Amino acid sequence: MQWLRDNLGIIKDASEIEPLAGSVADSGGIYFVPAFSGLFAPHWRADARGCVVGMTRYTNRAHLARAALEATAFQTRDVLEAMRLDSGVALKSLRVDGGCVRIIC
Prior knowledge:
single chain, mainly alpha
């Protein structure tokens, strides 16, 4: 979200991301991999770099915002699945904090 705000100027404040992303039905086929400093858990690839794929002339800033939020969900899912496979325990609930929580809640 910070990258969309500071580097692209798509939003002025992080709180704008959810309404913007919600203004479209889906990401329009956009996938965003925010690997600005590599991929972290559970992939651990320091050499990975971020990318945005699937853009067409139809793509707009709302699609990018939606793809960024979805990327957060995909990353969380990857970590939770790795935890389940490593421990054999399926989580019944998850408590979170941090900047993204303030955006969505």
